[in-house]
Amino acid sequence: MNEILAAYEIMKKIVMDNEDLASATKAYFALHFYTREKRKIIQALVVRALMHQFVLENMINDSFPSISKENTLLILVALTNTIFVKALEDEETIEKTKAILPLDANISLSMLEQLLTHAYDANHLVPSYVRVDSTLYKSYQYNIPTWLIDMWNRHYGSNVTQRLLVQIRRKKSPSYRINALKMEAQDFLAREKEDFKESSTKNTVLYMGKLPMKRLEAYRHGEILPLSEGASSLIDKVSSRNYDDALIMVSSFSYFPLALFTKQQENPHFLLATPTYPDVIAYRRAIELYGANKVEVVESPLSLLITYVSEKKDQVWVLPPSSSFQYISERPDFFTHFSKDEFDELLDIQRDYLEECATFVKEGGTLIYFIETANNKEGTLQIHRFLDQHDDFVLLEEKQMLPLDKKMSMGYFAILKKGETQHD
Question: What's the pLDDT at 106?
């Protein structure tokens, strides 16, 4: 069986058909039988190709300037094997790549052989003609688009941006919040000391084991929830005793509301609104698993929220769509599916979420905005634009969390109070 062809077909689904990595891989293997060992090789080829896509595509386009997108992906997979995976010998890689190339590929086969047999240093793939201090160099080095690096440079300066680029490409230990309704943190750590260790954030642990999340007994029994440390620290910060009634508007399924519910052992009434019915079903099942009470879940886009909210709330949580850069390190195909145009569209959607949700906050109540990303445009600039247009809200606290070391996660929150003007 041709591993190069298999990885190439999966890459086409991801890059050209806009499928995510997990779905594309699962769909391909459902139709084609491979041994476990072959599947590992194919998956490694796809993941490595995505992790180094920008610089490898540049190398290919330097050699073949007029090459088609399909042929670029094919050579990208073959080049990935040559440099990173090394599961196939050079001759086998060349033979299998040539076998897939169409007759009208219009590339030099001798140049292809040279490209695939060159002795590359996997740590030094950026071409020598690219300046080391340039944005393009960092883009190739970290597989991050230039528009994002330029934006971070403007927001945080080049030194912080460099540290960000290093950290977001490093694997992190998954963070879990302990369900206080089922277990105390100290009891959990005593029982699970081999696979979990204490985190720097209260009630949160880091997973050091090997099993996938869905196979963990503690997860399946609702004792822990996957949650970033930044999200967990915000939940601990906002007191549950200042209000009787809360609204949470979330754009898609997230463990954040579930962790919020499980913190409230004497919890107020929660109304959780989410735009799609599959997410409603997922939330209802999760609420039962985690033992949360007094939670009503409704399917509602922003435009229909008023039909479900009869009274204004003491507290309103806004979790709009965001660029979610918290997950770059976990998703090799992240920037295959996320563009600058999509980023600009998100800003308008976030404004809509803030504007609509603010109408449901009662006098003296709080509006809490939370996203898992690192961008001033989505965070502090978004909130201060809102405050400029709403004199009846005042900012109590805001924080941009940046993963500048292994203990920190990425996120932004703002806590606003209604009923006081900014001039009081």
Answer: 82
